[in-house]
Amino acid sequence: MNRTINIKYLIKAVLTFFICFTFGLVKAERGYDLWLRYQPVNDPVLLKQIRLQVENYAVLSNSATGLVIREELGRGLSGLLSKEIESISSENSSLLVATPAQYSGIKKYFDDRELSALGSEGFAIKSVSSKTPRTIITANSDIGLLYGAFHLLKLIQTNQSLEKLNITSVPKIDLRVLNHWDNLDRTSERGYAGFSIWDWHKLPDYLNPRYTDYARANASIGINGTVLTNVNANALVLTPHYLEKVKALADLFRPYGIKVYLTARFSAPIEIGGLKTADPLDAEVLKWWMEKVTEIYEYVPDFGGFLVKANSEGQPGPQDYGRTHADGANMMAEALAPFDGVVMWRAFVYSDEEPDDRAKQAYNEFKPLDGTFRENVLIQVKNGPIDFQPREPFHPLFGAMPETPLMMEFQITQEYLGQATQLVYLAPMWKECLDSDTYAKGNGSEVSKVINGALHGNSKTGIAGVANIGTDINWTGHPMAQSNWYAYGRLAWDTSLSSESIAKDWVRMTYGSNSEVVKTITSILMKSWEASVSYMTPLGLHHLMATGHHYGPGPWVSNLSRADWNPVYYHRADSVGIGFDRTTSGANAVGQYFPEVAEEFGSLGKCPDKFLLWFHHVPWSYQMRSGKSLWNELASKYQEGIDEVRTMQHDWKSLSGKIDEQRFEQVDMLLTIQEKEAVWWKDASMLYFQTFSNRPFPDFMEKPRFSLDYYQSQSFPFAPGIRPRW
Amino acid sequence: MNRTINIKYLIKAVLTFFICFTFGLVKAERGYDLWLRYQPVNDPVLLKQIRLQVENYAVLSNSATGLVIREELGRGLSGLLSKEIESISSENSSLLVATPAQYSGIKKYFDDRELSALGSEGFAIKSVSSKTPRTIITANSDIGLLYGAFHLLKLIQTNQSLEKLNITSVPKIDLRVLNHWDNLDRTSERGYAGFSIWDWHKLPDYLNPRYTDYARANASIGINGTVLTNVNANALVLTPHYLEKVKALADLFRPYGIKVYLTARFSAPIEIGGLKTADPLDAEVLKWWMEKVTEIYEYVPDFGGFLVKANSEGQPGPQDYGRTHADGANMMAEALAPFDGVVMWRAFVYSDEEPDDRAKQAYNEFKPLDGTFRENVLIQVKNGPIDFQPREPFHPLFGAMPETPLMMEFQITQEYLGQATQLVYLAPMWKECLDSDTYAKGNGSEVSKVINGALHGNSKTGIAGVANIGTDINWTGHPMAQSNWYAYGRLAWDTSLSSESIAKDWVRMTYGSNSEVVKTITSILMKSWEASVSYMTPLGLHHLMATGHHYGPGPWVSNLSRADWNPVYYHRADSVGIGFDRTTSGANAVGQYFPEVAEEFGSLGKCPDKFLLWFHHVPWSYQMRSGKSLWNELASKYQEGIDEVRTMQHDWKSLSGKIDEQRFEQVDMLLTIQEKEAVWWKDASMLYFQTFSNRPFPDFMEKPRFSLDYYQSQSFPFAPGIRPRW
Q: What is the ipTM of this complex?
């Protein structure tokens, strides 16, 4: 054979490879792969090193989960290392994934105490050396192994060395679930990424490939449960026609460690059961639920349980029959108990008859019920006492119900936080809540310890995130909103992580490990939440969004049927000042907190600026810590928010050419919208508040572009995320 | 440098390349790329040959369209030839794309007559040889060049040689448009692929990358117009808030040769104009439309015009004021004429007061108006006289309005044809219509000649397809439904193409050129439509679908407010027989056709079996051409449809391992549903018809699985494609 030709051919092939490789890089990134892109490690030294360490891998389990691990490692390692990494069936593989039960040799490297500390979901990864370096992932269950495998892939994705690993990771919260507010017709309440990914019509026979990728993404961040349907529930999902479909999803999700839950409409016994009542103390009603639950478990043997919104915003509930929330929750819990199912009962309730401050109502309602719930009931409490505002103080129920497991309910979908047009990284907000000290047992009684059970020793623990997932190709509409799904999962697994470290991981996995890229995007993420608070609801203002769809400013709205649906109820601006007096001389919402917190929030001098107008009605002329008057401080905050967005825009533009064009352009366009919306918020809000303050705009604030009339006349009948009006 | 190491490195790189290549093949195909996948030519001889022929390419135009051509050829050629093909700016490139105006040398190869015959959209491709072989694409416009470039790419995609090319292609129909029945809230009436791809909320600032890929796909098959909004129109789209958004789309689509059209709600002058009337003869109304149209053209200088559904199914229209359709259409046409805009006025009308056969009403209404329309009005007529049924005879208006340009309205979305759960290739249906002889000017007066203007010499010609495009990753929900979008475009460009040749092109481009794959999928496509007619509405039966959503059988429905909304109106089954007597002794719908056709359809002996029950009420005992009684023939047809689906399933399964796993599995799952649905149609229909025929089911028919009661009790409140009910 002619050697020259041979070499020519080889050179050609190499060139072709580089073109192929280059195409790979410039190929449009549509965002579908989320943080599981598995692009080749681009540090050649590290790549070489890891290739030597992971020459092949073995997953000893042959369960459905074992298969999932094998596939994921195959896909991940081959992608990251840019060569095929072989799956072998020998314990002598360079990467070994096994439980001690699958391979007793594991016990050589992990002692019993180590193993037992892993519990049912934790994992350990250790570098061991015999003749050649080896890496071992172990756990007490296949699901633990799966979590460990994803962790190992994350190490490579984030350009970390695999040398001398000695990692142990155990989740502190048991139930880490997503709440989908998705309707059976595929609309999604408060969904801004298109529509529901659940194609109920084609289930059970058609399993959209998205379902699998959804399960992979969730498993990669430790989410182990999903509530498929809207809390504003439709009882039809409990009928056999739909249970067949639920079963299909549950079967698909099971190997990924994800349990399925449903929302249970309290009046279902009437609507689909033909009963005349849904009274939780009626024996027929209990019987109906017991039979229904038994039926559900026939379809889904590991069904997780029910999420219930009752006696809130028009939903039926036990109070319709003069019963308490505990009566309602316990009735369902009794039906679920034999199957180890749970009831997640939402504390987001407020009553029409109750004239008290809306911020106080959940506490008023639930605090007295502490200790009366069955042990398989968790009370699901939103992070703050109002409703997923850009910033809220932590909910006073945290710490106040020592006998009851409280689940955290975060909202990942950005209902009040810019929806799908604004880049707002939510982890810092969640961390602010989790790190807040309730003082329930004195100093050090953080919210995180309430929900992970450490403070009161609850046996059940849980956390829920209202999903931002929809049919958009990139899943979340705004490409950067993927970070919130990711961060929620990571925090649910480990509330002690910093939002910045999570952001960095996400950026590396999603945009690659170029240090300039990582630095820039992380910095944009980290400043985004404070910016959004500043340009929407600074200084503790809240619930000033336009009616219904909550898109854009509507601080002037005062015509809704319930007082506490109107923004004017919350800001209370008048000629004297602005803010809601929730101190002891006002609504006394501070009285629901433990004394240390009550004193801080309740004192005008001690209350942090960020919560000032949440708790105090403050004169326009009041001198703030900055030295500015309240009026000028307000103007300054709005302007600061806009300026921050412009910095974000500027920083983002510096990434041109450093990341793929498609996502670069997408975020760039969205930041243009965000800047416009920030200005809109400032203009509309400051013009409106000026009608009370009668003060001039300070020079440092850009003049409003239009008149207040103009802003008040804007209407968005088809803003997304609400039920369309026909 | 050590040669050995060098070679080792090269070998490694080659291996890496092959792995990379292999990954390319096994990578999940999500269907997003449609028929523009540009996978490497897998015939090595052909690949080598084409690589020699297309070493580089030059697009001389620097217009926006020129840029699009350059990008598409870059992407396409590099993908198909698996090496980077350089874009150069020399007329001596091996592939040259230029108009004679851009490069006068073109005239050496194409004479004036050839060039002038290309018109404004046609193109020519010629192999020429000087020193080296060269290929030249020419046209009189950049858009023509774009069409030519896509044609060349198609030649390579379908594994055709580029030798001795001498191709001329000119569309025979001017307006080749898609109709999107999409609402401003992103729901899509009769949409089965998710929701609307138009994200109105984020427009104009956010341009979803899908918009560009939508434009590329359409340009690749010659579609040159798109009606963005539902014919059941909302006037808000004509307000500045939305016109800004429309402008953004129009700007994006312009380089691809795609004009934007809107649906105009007839009562818009009242709803958004503040007038008291929409009477087309009112001077204020005309003035309002003239101003509105002028305003629209300020946003979109090449705006295409209006599509109007008036006085039909509750839509407002000129008859509300005692005026005719011509009065209404002409008023809008007058406003559009100065800008060269057109009115596409739909003939799909039927009146509540009119007790005549629904099949006759459009003809009754429009035939008398022939010759009274302004010259920029086209009347848009559905292929058949009822409403996109699985099979209809051609619409009697075709040929009957010689003075008026008639546009064809096909429905690509499968409202009555299995929606997104059934594989039904529609080209054979469209061809049956296009090839039907109207006898308007004697033998040879096919429908295709009516709509391309050849028969009556109309100066304006058009064709519309109701789009099946939605937010699903693969655009059309069912992966195979992409073939219908593709076939519609190809037929709109050239009605003389065979449905099989189009199918073959589509399969090669979408699934690759493996001959077994091409043969099998083409055969599945080609039999699919007849199968669906057989298991849903055989022998000329029609409109037997369940109410509202039209999902599944509902031949028993008789309780709808209008007689002609009820299936019983159409099948007229009784103890004697079944079918709608539309002969001269009945409703005399045959009288609307030219005599030759009327005689064929009107005579029981001559009427083809496929239209028998459309035109005749036939006794159960009637002996069919097959020798069977009508009752047994009906049973036989239903069974035949099911058997065909099972053959399709079987054939599809033979492709396992020959195409990518993801699409293989998707279609496989959907065929399972299709088989169930076919059986459901047969069971429900035959059980119901048996209550009239009182005859036993023949042995060759599988016994129904459930009772008629069961089928009648089925309900699908959330079937897709309709407005949700709140």
A: 0.94
